[in-house]
Amino acid sequence: MKKQMLAVIACLAAGIMIASCSKNDKQQQVQPDPVSDEILAQINAYGLSTDNVRKTPDGYLVEGDILLTADQLKEGVNSTALRVGQVEQYRSSRLVTGLPRTITVKIVGLSAAFVAGVDTAIRRYNSLGLRITFQRITSGNAGITIEGFNQAPVNGYVSFASSGFPTSAGDPCPTIRLNYNAAAFGINPNVLFAGSMIQHEMGHCLGMHHTDYMDRSFSCGGARVREDITPQWIPGTPMGPDPDSWMLACSNGGNRPFNANDIIALRYLYR
Ligand SMILES: [Zn+2]
Fold first, then answer.
1. Distance 173 CA to ligand 1 centre (A)
2. Could you give the CA distance from residue 90 to residue 98 in angstroms, rounded to a whole number?
3. Where are the domains of the chain?
């Protein structure tokens, strides 16, 4: 059983390796050793939760769906923390540069429902009047490629999706991965649910952290995580609570379009 579990973990790690921002075609053995204190300190310095960090052959999967390579962690970033209202915490590390800019998006090997989800997410971003716009293409190299993977739950945990942060060159992280296993999206998901999840992963590709990075109990349940960062309030924005940000760490399983504060934060960073 242990062997079987290791095999599952190896498959998981190999899958994540493909999703990584850096290229590495070699199959590697999964190292079962725990994540070192040094790496945890780097993840903390990045402004990300050090809970349940999963080591992969090519990086670290943090907060469930953000893949960071060891090189990215070593580089470190100066994060910008933005606060809108009482509960919305927006944070960005590296941003996409070279604006105004059109980012092409290609989806491969996934059903029409996912394609419709991508189009939904693109339409939502493009309606905001940002200096970044998205355009779906069906051939050639894309700025972001969205691809599927099939992974059953591991130890009761199922991964729906993963992506990463922008590269040191100021490009969006090039790959978003979606799990079409029946325990995750399945092959024919609800378009608005899939679209909202894709919209979330695209947010990471633009440099957005989880809105509730200081208190993941807000969307995921469980304990408060951290309160050691003083975010920068965006002047002139509403003070009242405004839940259901598209960048909450855990999905509500339904449709989650941009709320008013999401739009304020995105326009602050990209308009
Ligand atoms: Zn996320």
1. 13
2. 22
3. 79-270
With H, G, I as helix, E, B as strand and everything else as coil, classify residue 230. Answer: coil
Q: What pTM does this model have?
A: 0.81
CA of 204 to the centre of ligand 1 (A): 7
Residue 1 Cα to ligand 1 middle (Å): 31
Q: Show the tokens assigned to 38.
A: 């040094």
Alpha helices in 183-253 (DSSP H): 191-205, 217-220
30 Cα to the center of ligand 1, angstroms:
24
Q: Kindly report the CATH class assigned to 79-270.
A: alpha beta
**How many angstroms separate the CA atoms of 213 and 47, rounded?**
8
Cα 246 to ligand 1 centroid, rounded to whole Å: 9
Segment (H or E) for 12:
helix 2-19
Residue positions counted in the chain: 271
Strands (E), the chain: 54-56, 59-62, 66-68, 80-84, 88-92, 101-108, 132-136, 144-149, 161-162, 175-179, 232-233
CA of 254 to the centre of ligand 1 (A): 15
Q: C-alpha distances in angstroms, 200 versus 13, 20, 94?
A: 22, 17, 17
CA 268 to ligand 1 center in whole angstroms: 20
Query: How far is ligand 1, taken at its centre, from the CA of residue 200, in Å?
Result: 6
- Predicted confidence (pLDDT) per residue in 161-203, tens digit: 999 999 989 999 999 999 999 999 999 999 999 999 999 999 9
How far is ligand 1, taken at its centre, from the CA of residue 198, in Å?
Answer: 10
